[in-house]
Design goal:
324 residues, alpha/beta, two-stranded antiparallel sheet, 8 helices, 23% helix, 19% strand, globular
C-alpha cells in the first residue's frame, strides 16, 4: 500500500470548532504529492549572506543567548516541541492544558531524547494564525491571531527556558504580512517561525477543499525578513520551520535559500502508521546542511506512536521532533 497520511484540522469562524478532517492517500507508486522528490531537492543551497557585523568585543558580550545557552541551535541542540493552538486540544497537545503545564510537559518529553547525543532544547510551537473554512475577518480564509495568547505562551516558555515558535496558516493571505503583525514577538531572541504550506491557498482555493502550496519566493521573502532582524539586533540563530508532507506543497523547494541567521528546517508532517511515516520521510528527500530535518508525531492519530528511540532510528535522524 502507498503511504497514507491525514490532513490536520481546520477551524471555522467564529466558534473555531474543528472541522473537515479529511484523510488523503498517495497515488500508487509515488510520493505524497503524486511523485517522488526530484534529485534537485536533495541539493543543499548556498547560504545567502547578510551584512557582516563589526568585530567588537563589547557588542559580542551584549548579544543575547538561546534559552539554554549559546547562539547556535543546530547542530548544538536537538529541539523537541509540543504543537497546537491556544483554545483547546482540537489543534494539538499544546492547547490541552495551561501554557505552563504544556511547557513543563514538553520539558519532560524532551529529556527522553537526551540519549541521542545532543543537549535537548524544548520548544512550544503555537499556531498564531489559523486557516478557516470561511472567509474570516478579512476575506483571506485565515484568522488574525491573538497576541495575548502569544504573550501567555512566551512567558511560560521563558519560565522553562524554552523556545517559542509561531506557526502561520495564511489561507489566501500572505505569510510575510501575517508575520509582520507579530513583529514585536519576532524581534525576540527566543521566538522562531513556522510556515504551513498545507494551509497556504491560491486565490479561489478554500482551505480543507484542497491542499495548499508555497513558492520558494514566498518563503525566501520570510527568511530574508527574519535574517535581517537577526543581523540588525545581533540575535542568536532563529528557528524557521517549513512543514511538508506532499512534494506538491513545495513545488520549487530547490530554490529555497538558507540564510546564516536562521536554522531552517524542512519538517515531515502528517499522521499514519509507522511504516507509512518512515516511507514519506524518505520520499520527501529533505536536503542536508545548511538545511535541517524535522519529524512530527501525532499522539492520538499515529498508529502506533513511534518511541523516541524509534524516531531517532530514522535515517538521517531528525534535528527537530514535534508532538501534536
Amino acid at each position: 500500500m502507498p503511504p497514507f497520511l491525514s490532513r490536520r484540522r481546520l477551524l471555522t469562524m467564529p466558534a473555531l470548532a474543528a472541522a473537515l478532517f479529511v484523510p488523503v492517500g498517495c497515488a500508487s507508486g509515488s510520493g505524497p504529492g503524486g511523485s517522488a522528490a526530484s534529485d534537485s531537492h536533495a541539493k543543499a543551497q548556498p547560504v545567502a549572506p547578510h551584512a557582516p557585523e563589526p568585530p567588537s568585543a563589547s557588542s559580542t558580550a551584549a548579544r543575547p543567548s538561546l534559552p539554554r545557552g549559546g547562539r547556535t541551535i543546530f547542530p548544538n541542540y536537538r529541539v523537541v516541541a509540543y504543537y497546537g493552538g491556544s483554545d483547546g486540544p482540537g489543534l494539538g497537545i499544546l492547547g490541552a492544558s495551561t501554557a505552563d503545564e504544556a511547557a513543563a510537559a514538553v520539558d519532560r518529553q524532551a529529556q527522553l531524547y537526551a540519549f541521542a547525543g545532543r543537549p535537548v532544547q524544548p520548544a512550544l510551537e503555537l499556531i498564531a494564525t489559523v486557516a478557516l473554512a470561511d472567509p474570516g475577518p478579512d476575506g483571506t480564509y485565515s484568522s488574525h491571531g491573538d497576541p495575548a495568547a502569544v504573550d501567555r505562551y512566551l512567558a511560560a516558555a521563558r519560565r522553562h527556558k524554552e523556545l517559542l515558535v509561531l506557526d502561520f496558516q495564511p489561507g489566501q493571505g500572505d505569510y510575510l504580512t501575517q508575520i509582520q503583525r507579530f513583529a514585536r514577538f519576532v524581534a525576540e531572541p527566543d521566538v522562531g517561525i513556522a510556515l504551513d504550506p498545507e494551509w497556504h491557498m491560491k486565490s479561489g482555493e478554500v482551505p480543507g477543499k484542497t491542499y495548499g502550496s508555497s513558492s520558494a519566493a514566498s518563503i525566501n521573502a520570510v527568511s530574508a525578513y527574519l535574517d535581517g532582524i537577526v543581523a540588525n539586533r545581533r540575535l542568536p540563530q532563529k528557528l524557521l520551520v517549513i512543514h511538508q508532507f506532499r512534494t506538491s506543497m513545495l513545488p520549487d523547494r530547490s530554490a529555497i535559500v538558507a540564510r546564516p541567521g536562521l536554522a531552517t528546517v524542512f519538517h515531515a508532517d502528517g499522521n499514519g502508521t509507522p511504516d507509512d511515516k518512515v516511507k514519506v520521510y524518505g520520499i520527501l528527500g529533505f536536503p542536508g546542511p545548511p538545511f535541517y530535518r524535522g519529524f512530527k508525531l501525532f499522539l492520538t492519530r499515529d498508529t502506533p506512536l513511534l518511541s523516541p528511540r524509534e524516531t531517532m532510528a530514522l535515517s538521517p535522524a531528525p534535528d527537530l521532533v514535534t508532538y501534536q
